[in-house]
Amino acid sequence: MLTITNLTYRYPDGTPALRGIDLAIAAGEKVALLGVNGAGKSTLLLHLNGTLRPASGAIVVDGLPVTPQNLRQIRARVGLVFQDPDDQLFSPTVFDDVAFGPLYMGLAPAEAAQRVQQALQAVGMMGYERRAPHRLSLGQRKRVALATVLAMQPSLLALDEPSAGLDPRARRALSELLRALPQTMLVSTHDLALVADVFPRAIVLAEGRVVADEATASLLAHHSRLLQYGLI
Amino acid sequence: MADESLADRALAPASGIAVYDGRVTTWLALGYIFTLAWLPAGAWDALIMAALILWFVIGCGRIGLRLIWRRSLVAWPFALAALTLAIARPGEPIAQFTIGGQAFTVTDAGIVATATVMIKSWLSVQAVMALIATTHFSELLTALAALRLPPLLVMILGMAYRYLFILQDEALRMLRARDSRSAALPNRRAGRNLRWRATITGRMVGTLFVRAYERSERIYAAMLARGYDGQPLTTPPPSLRRIDYVLLIGGSAACIGLIIVAYT
Amino acid sequence: MWWQWIAERITLGLHIPDGFLHAPVALLWWLPTVIAVGVATRAVRQSLDDRAVPLMGVMAAFIFAAQMLNFPIAGGTSGHVLGGAFAAIVLGPWAGMIVMTCVIALQAILFQDGGIVAMGANIFNMGIATAAIGGWIARPLLTRNGSFTTNRLWIATVTAGAGWLSVMAAAALTSAQLVLSDLPAAIVFPAMLGVHAVIGIGEGLITAAAVLFLVTTRPDLLQANAPAGTSSARVAVIGLIIAAVTAAFAPLASPDPDGLERIAEDVGFIERATDAPYHMLPDYTIPWLGETPLSTILAGLIGVAVMIGLIWVIAALLRSRPPARS
Lengths: 232, 264, 326
Description:
The complex is a heterotrimer. Chain A is α/β, with parallel strands linked by helices. Chain A has helices at 41-48, 71-77, 85-88, 94-104, 109-122, 138-150, 168-180, 192-198, 216-221, 223-229, and strands at residues 2-10, 16-25, 30-34, 56-61, 64-65, 78-81, 156-160, 184-188, 201-206, 209-215. In chain A, strand 9 and strand 10 form a beta hairpin. Chain B is mainly α. Chain B has 2 domains: 4-82 and 121-147 and 239-263, no CATH class; 150-180 and 202-233, no CATH class. Helices cover 69% and strands 5% of the residues of chain B. In chain B, helix 2 packs parallel to helix 11 (242-263). Chains in contact: A-B, A-C, B-C. Chains B and C meet through helix 2, helix 5, helix 6, helix 7 and helix 9 of B and helix 1, helix 2, helix 3, strand 1 and helix 5 of C.
């Protein structure tokens, strides 16, 4: 489903950010991406839909390599949700925002409207169509941001710290939502409770390398390793 | 668009010039650029001297002449416009060509004018680059304040500079988030139409405006919390040292010298 | 790709670099700019009081960032907003001018988009003229009895028109300044106005969409009392127009030479026009130096000094009056 081979990336100023990432995720898998700030989690996610171009290495999503030529098709398959929903929501109403992706893909307005309904239903935001995004709470905005990519029916969801800043109730709702969604997921987070709840597999990044890739249960069982990776 | 690394250098000037007062470097750079503007077409001796003076200063400042040259290419596409000067000036015809039934004549005076404009433009850009590579932006503001720019405007400029990169980052993240959702399906035309895309961009502008406005309100509250009452805070800058005066006088003399060379 | 880079630069074609404008042309255009910015500074200080610095500063940074928000047009080129009309529609003409002045100054200094000597002209074209159109033409059409109209079609029409017009005005002014600096009118005017007639459509659409977005989501920001014109503001506007017209046409009187010789001529021209009882600089030379190059230089330098002095005096007059504080 997702294969990454020997991915390296440098920031424009030359600092290496990713130093040879190899990983494979099977269809339907839900994988957590852990690591301290600056470990390269967001940078890796930005590679999945070609927002950043690697210095070397390859990414294949659903058999389609991520290259500048098929960027637009890749973006129909990879739903990338940014950490700050305000970056993602730019329309006067929730409906307009969720409809952006489907309309851009060239779907007819009626079909797009149907996609919007499905996506809002999936995230539990039915009835908010005419609301202005900035009038919603952070938890609600995060749900709408997720709906904006769900409406495009991607096969891979890449979420950047979806639970950051949420209160406990919103966090529990998010955790239930992520469990219920059928898509393959790669989710960067610092939230170990969420990881234990939703993701059977965890990958730990440190200084641009994969330092652990194993079952969540075995990782969480080793207090000393969590300490070493800076996860607690 | 933005080439930030030169401006970033200004945050930590490590070059030789940086030991001089920011006011001196600012005034000299401005004086140099204004002097260049007055050099007439074809004043090659003055232009060559101007270039050598600038490159000498850049060399002394250890800014990296090659870096400056590479970056200074930003001025070149506009230089295409300067090419039209070649056919606009009356003079000895050198070449003729026809585009769409209209005959154009390249004259010697025209070529001289074109070359002069390009050189002046190129040198001016290098002077600004040398300035920001050696002078911290706050020193630049001090220099402008000393030139009697209204204090309010100076403070606004400082505030704008402070939040420039933050809002640019915000805009960049918004662009990335939009582009991540700008997908295409096989055999379907993506992107709808121009009007729709422009409308989306307009909404992004509106969103960014609201975020910026709310940020300014937070900043205002934070300023009030620290006792700001609208009066510009002016700490008198330290007086210029003797070396600064020497530099100022030397630089002014060089500029006047260039004018004299150009017109005699 | 390199051609995209060039295309992007051409859409930035309103930022005149140094070297292109004849020095007298560039210097003369500082005059209306200094007047406008001076008046605007006072107006903003009066109406916004101590909020002026954070609001104007962040808004300048906002325009800077908003210019990054581009959208694909065709063939790898992209359009973006200039923002002067939008800033003035939302914040009012004076605040719009201040914001755009800061943007253009920072672009020239930090990113070398636009020159230093040419900054007076650049600020006038892209900041003063665009904000004037947004603030003095569009804004009155959008407000009824002090509150923003709710007719969306009308808002869209007026703001889109103002956006397009602001770009065209900036392009026309830029072209005029380039032509006064001897670039061929037959090429500059059609090229600049043609390209910007298209770019202006993007500006109009973005401006309209952005204002409509605010009408929908944050109408309170539009109702906020923007710096309105004081009674002296109307006088200032008239002075501004006179100064701009003078700046535009004074150099026409002396067609050919550039540089100091030209300013020397201009000074002579102004002297004659005002029927000065005596000629300070007869034949643009200093009498006791005779017809030497040195004489021309000195005459020119005196002319420059007179002009800079004029700008300085106006700036000082605008600054000297203490701000009215509520």
